[in-house]
Design brief:
Blueprint (H helix, E strand, L loop, with lengths): L15 H21 L22 H28 L49 E2 L6 E2 L3 H12 L20 H26 L9 H12 L3 E10 L3 E8 L12 E7 L4 H4 L2 H5 L2 H7 L4 H22 L6 E5 L2 E5 L2 E2 L2 E2 L10 H20 L13 E4 L2 E4 L13 H18 L8 H9 L8 H22 L5 H4 L9
Antiparallel strand pairs: 1-2, 3-4, 4-5, 5-7, 6-7, 8-9, 10-11
Helix pairs in contact: 10-12, 11-12, 11-13
The structure holds adenosine-5'-diphosphate and manganese (II) ion.
Catalytic activity: L-threonyl-[protein] + ATP = O-phospho-L-threonyl-[protein] + ADP + H(+); L-seryl-[protein] + ATP = O-phospho-L-seryl-[protein] + ADP + H(+)
Main location: cytoplasm
EC number: 2.7.11.1
Length: about 500
């Protein structure tokens, strides 16, 4: 009897269908791979070189390894020199470009090249020595196959010419050198990965912040803001969405338009790839504030209008005292606003934060208030309100992401409001806030309407009827007389 008890023999159960389908998948993959790599360098036997399996019988290989060792020492020496020169001076000189061996960047392992993939082999020889289809030349004893060492060796040496120009292959190309497949493959792997590493390193230096997420024109805009002293540094990307990229930046000293620049800023860059915005047309096309302009604009300008819209809407909210980012500046499709959060850490979204039931209750009543303020005082419907666009900061909820917000008289404004209400009440009911109104009650509480329908479908129908009524009214009497501005609501803003 084993002192540790009987061995556990239960094996993980797995259905026959699973096993079969896995096998099938493997077979299919093999087939696919075989089709994709029909012409792998002819190392019919013997594995490719791996870490533990280095063929040290070749002099060239040994020389190559020595060279790499030497390069490493050279780089270490460079690093020492660099340190000596720079001391603890604030301005430092980098010898990075002179290094031979590029430091391995760990985050790139996932795009490490599969150098055996000959579909995109950049080192493929231009004029490969022809081996007939049948795979051999000659007759009888003098037969030479494509595996022939001499032919293959010469071919490999010729291929070396196609390595990147920085890759020093020596003058072996002119000689009658015969590289074994193993050595050639090892070299090819080395050359390829060095080239890629070098390219990556370069890329990193060029765009040390996450600015590479934006196009050159936008980058220029951002640089200008930094140059003008408006921003101190752009530290990195907070979020990349379908329609926007948001960066964090430290505010600069110079306040241009007698405005104090907040110590930390969020930069929202509206994406200029247009397709994402197509389905958002309805938010802006039917917004009468932009109606006259819309038809004359090209898509690029429409995107600027999104940024402009967000700015106007934020300003309205700011004026009403709703917690939201403060607008710093708008330049084309780039909106700079105050950062909600601290020390580069953005405030968490309501969906991500764990609140005590007391705080959750507080958050709810705050949001109810904000929605009413937004509607009544700002004459706006958020139109994308959910736990994703509410941040929890400083013990309260902040509203963000208002580029799509519309006025309630928008042809679909009330539908958007109803959707907002549904998101909010579902979130808080799930979070266990007993006070949370249901979506229909919330809609009435925010809008001041008194729709009595007790089910979703009828309620929705009444909302659409209201919208239709308003549209007809606008058609007949112009926007100023619409029902929303008629009964004591604030006048419609002219912007
Ligand atoms: P999108 O249209 O991509 O959803 P958002 O305006 O919601 O754009 O911004 C995306 C994310 O960026 C937000 O969820 C939030 O985490 C962050 N963010 C945006 N603006 C700010 C800000 N002013 N302060 C802090 N974080 C912000
Ligand atoms: Mn958002």
């Amino acid at each position: 009897q084993c002192p540790w008890g009987a061995p556990n023999t239960t094996s993980i159960s797995c259905s026959l269908a699973d096993v079969m389908s896995e096998q099938l998948a493997k077979e299919l993959q093999l087939e696919e791979e075989n089709a994709a790599f029909p012409e792998v360098v002819a190392v019919a036997e013997g594995p490719f070189i791996t870490g533990e399996n280095i063929d040290t019988s070749s002099d060239l290989m040994l020389a190559q390894m020595l060279q790499m060792e030497f390069d490493r020492e050279y780089d270490a020496q460079l690093r020492r020199e660099e340190k000596k020169i720079n001391g603890d001076s604030k301005v430092s000189i980098s010898f990075e470009n002179y290094r031979k061996v590029h430091p391995y960047d760990s985050d790139s392992s996932e795009d490490e090249v599969d150098w055996q993939d000959t579909r995109h082999d950049p080192y493929r020889a231009d004029k490969p020595t022809t081996t007939p289809r049948k795979g051999f030349v000659g007759k009888g004893k003098d037969i030479t196959t494509k595996h022939d060492e001499v032919v293959c060796g010469r071919k490999n040496t010729a291929r070396m010419e196609n390595f990147a120009p920085e890759f020093q292959v020596g003058d072996g190309i002119g000689m009658d050198l015969k590289l074994s497949n193993q050595v050639f493959n090892a070299l090819k792997q080395h050359a390829y990965s060095e080239e890629r590493r070098s390219a990556r390193l370069h890329e990193k230096k060029e765009h040390s912040t996450a600015e590479k997420a934006v196009d050159p024109k936008t980058r220029l805009l951002l640089y200008k803001m930094v140059n003008a002293g408006m921003l101190e540094t752009i530290t990195g990307c907070i979020s990349t969405g379908k329609e926007s990229v948001v960066f964090h930046a430290y505010g600069g000293k110079s306040a241009t338009e007698d405005k104090v620049i907040p110590p930390e800023c969020a930069i929202k860059v509206f994406k200029t790839t247009l397709n994402e915005f197509k389905n958002r047309d309805k938010y802006i096309k039917d917004d009468y504030r932009f109606k006259d302009r819309f038809s004359k604009l090209n898509p690029r300008k429409i995107i600027r209008m999104w940024a402009e819209k967000e700015m106007h809407n934020l300003t309205r909210m700011q004026n009403a005292g709703i917690p939201c980012p403060q607008v710093v500046i708008l330049k084309k499709h780039v909106l700079v606003m105050s950062f909600i959060g601290q020390d580069q850490v953005p405030a968490p979204k309501l969906k991500d934060v764990t609140l005590s039931s007391e705080d959750m209750k507080k958050a709810y009543s705050q949001i109810l208030n904000m929605m009413q303020q937004l509607y009544k005082e700002c004459n706006l419907v958020h139109a994308d309100l959910s736990e994703y666009n509410m941040l929890w900061h400083d013990g309260k909820v902040w509203l963000i992401d208002v580029s799509q917000s519309v006025e309630p008289t928008h042809p679909h404004g009330l539908e958007f409001l109803f959707r907002d209400c549904r998101n909010v009440s579902q979130f808080f009911q799930k979070a266990g806030v007993a006070e949370a109104l249901n979506e229909r009650e919330l809609f009435n509480a925010v809008s001041g309407f008194n729709i009595t329908a007790d089910n979703e479908v009828d309620f929705q129908a009444e909302i659409e009827a209201l919208e239709k009524m308003n549209e007809d009214h606008v058609q007949n009497h112009g926007k100023k007389l619409s029902m929303f501005s008629g009964d004591g609501d604030p006048p419609i803003y002219d912007e």
